[in-house]
Amino acid sequence: MKSQLATKLAALFLLSIAAILSSSASGQRPFTPEDDVGLALFEYGSRGAPGGVIKYSPDGRYFAVVTERGRLDLNAPEDTIWVFRIEDLQHFVQHPEQDNPPTPFALAQMATDKDGPLMEHVRWLLDSSGVAFTAVRKSACCKFHQLFVADVRTHAVKALTPEDHDVGDFDIRSDVRYVYEVSAPELLTAPKEEQQPAVALTGKSLWTTRFPNVVHHLTPFEAAGLWAVIDGNRREVLDQRLYEAPSGGRASLSLSPDGRSVVAILRTEHPPVTTWARYKAPPGYEKFKFPLDTFAYHMIDLAGGAKKLLVNAPSGINQDWHSYLLKAAWSADGQSVLLPDTFFPLNVADPKEIAERENHPYIAVLQLKTGQLSKVLPVKAGLDKERYAVKAARFEGYKKVIVNFDRSYFLPDQPLAAIFYQDDSGSWRQAAATEDPLLAKLSFNVQKRESINQPPRLFVENKDCEASRLIWDPNPQLKDIELGSAEVIHWKDDTGYEWEAGLLKPQGYAPGKRYPLVIQTHGFSKGKFLSSGIFTSAFAARALAAQGIAVLQMGWNPNNFDTPKEGPDQVAGFESAVKKLTSEGLIDSTKVGVIGFSRSVYHVLAAITSAKDLFAAASVTDGVTFGYFEYVFAVDSGLDREADAINGGKPFGPESLKNWLARSPEFNMDKVRTPLLLLQPGAPAVLAGWEPYAALRYLKKPVDLVMLQAGTHVMTNPTQRLASETVNVDWFRFWLKGEEDPDPAKGELYARWRELRKLQDAKEKSASAIVH
């Protein structure tokens, strides 16, 4: 036995030495949370880039891209608009012997707030002389978004709106003709505790935690509403009482060529509710039972403020028909408007046509003089994801429409564009061409490429020979870092659901050795570089792998969302993943952790209260729990619609309460055997996660509550992101590997966790004694 043990120890020692030598021979160092925070991303904040990553100027002379990276030295994200000259790229493509690709210039760069995104709504002026955008700014008391235009020739950046106007959506023809919406600026009054990177709250009373007690917006704010600048003259068009637009900048303002009117999505004042209620939800979304949304396309006269409903039907916002593009486009003569996401009126006699109109919205063209509305393309959305994301749509001439699709995630192998012509009957016919005419003029294609193992970079491809060359790497620093290796895996669980996930192997991976595993949740994209996770909140994939821990990035099973089966379905996915990787000899099934964020916080809580021996450690951040405390304090928020469906009714009365007692994780914390970390950004998130924390404290089970500085739900502040990733890496090293970071600044953290380990050891010893 001693000889066998010595042989195993010697083998492990040699493997460790080999890994160290391999790393030092390559001259690369391990990936850290700091490296993840500093990555420059095109689609920052884990969201798509509106209008696409590559934004061509209307004259075809330039294209622009926007990046965001975390600057720890500034404690802020840094957003940059980069511009490439097409002429330079053309020369590079035509001369393959040229080694150095053209260098972009930074047209505008900002690091003006601790949270991003900072620069949004980036778009070219129609004459290609500059780029307009909104950016976060601060005054002595307020934070607001200001409208800017950057001149391509001089690189001068000019503010177009006053400081007290917090600008949302806008449209612009020139720097003297534009329209924009205004809301109240945000007051800068966050409590000091919320500005700290991380504050331990374990053992403290909820009510001693200092919660925000001020109104965060100026009220009333007389300037709120719709504003316009025509020929340099600024005026208010509609005040906030008359300008009721959707939240999140979805008014989708579209200024007419003559600057006299604007098309916007506004709430309809007197909608025919009975008729509009007949419009159906996207396939697979019926179970969500979204209420009727009465926002629709309107035209606003900028001189007098008169509003006119353009189509007697709601926009695609209704029932969540999100094709992603809502902004209308005008024909050059101002006589027609392209509406990219609208239902059609039901005022026809043909039953088949009525059923078709009820089933989905369309991309449509409206002739303003005649009121004729014609179909260009059905908007298919939902779980089928057919032509799911519309990136851009415009007129070319009067009887030609170009639609560009965003294929980066949902349908990456389908054509990028569709071209439609209007025939003599007024119907729109799709042409065979699948390339935007603007791009068809070029002899090359520019593409953003990335994969699960490759960070995003820009390539140029010669159309004649299909030869591809790298033109820009926004992250050259990664050449000195060992990134490890990830792969896409598939499996089926016991319910028959087929999973796809990304498996990141530990640095220095040795076949035959079993490693700890951390499962990361809330989605997976095989076309996205797996650095932290599907979002930049709390996930730490490559930083964990650098510490010898395998990571599985997985999504969820949506088949039974908003039903009592939602939690069990996800637990089945976790269990089957662990079973698969254990059977393949890759992981140690007794050393598995899990991270939950947002919706998947509930999934993790469901797992640790039902699959008691599945996870050796868990961490959750800023999400829903579907517990009783959350239910009560979130009254009138709409949370009840999902919580009632998942837990079996409202938690009042004997029968419904019995369902809650059986299904809600918070009522089953006595079953938990997994140490739980609650990593919550700001006091409101602490409140939201208080129930599982308090329950485990009462039960004397290992739980730790850490408040990060307040910020965005999908974390963008570099200090906040660094704290969340670092604490999670330390947490899983501690519980899955028994390791501690020697940094003396973490002494208090490890002292707290050692006490939790004593609790865990005592619980396990007690449980073992009962079994025997």
Describe this structure in words.
By secondary structure, the chain is of the alpha+beta class. It has a domain at about 480-770: 3-Layer(aba) Sandwich (Rossmann fold), CATH 3.40.50. It has 16 helices and 39 strands. The chain has a 9-stranded mixed β-sheet with strand order 13-39-38-37-36-34-35-33-32, with helices on both faces. Strand 28 (about 445-450) and strand 29 form a beta hairpin. It is globular, with a radius of gyration of 28 Å. Mean pLDDT is about 90; it is low at about 1-25 and about 210-215.
Task: Tell me the distance between the termini.
Answer: 28 Å
Give a short account of the largest sheet. Answer: 9 strands, mixed
Give the uncertain stretches in residue-range form.
1-25, 210-216
Give the CATH class of the domain at 482-771.
Answer: Alpha Beta
Portion in beta strands: 25-35%
The amount of helix comes to 10-25%
User: What is the rounded Rg?
Assistant: 28 Å
CATH T-level fold name of the domain at 482-771: Rossmann fold
Q: Helix/strand-derived class?
A: alpha+beta
- At CATH level 2, the architecture of the domain at 482-771 is 3-Layer(aba) Sandwich
Q: Whole-number average pLDDT?
A: 89
User: What's the CATH H-level superfamily name of the domain at 482-771?
Assistant: Alpha/Beta hydrolase fold, catalytic domain
Helices, by number, come to 16
Oligomeric state: single chain
Shape: globular
Strand order of the largest sheet: 13-39-38-37-36-34-35-33-32
- DSSP, total strands: 39
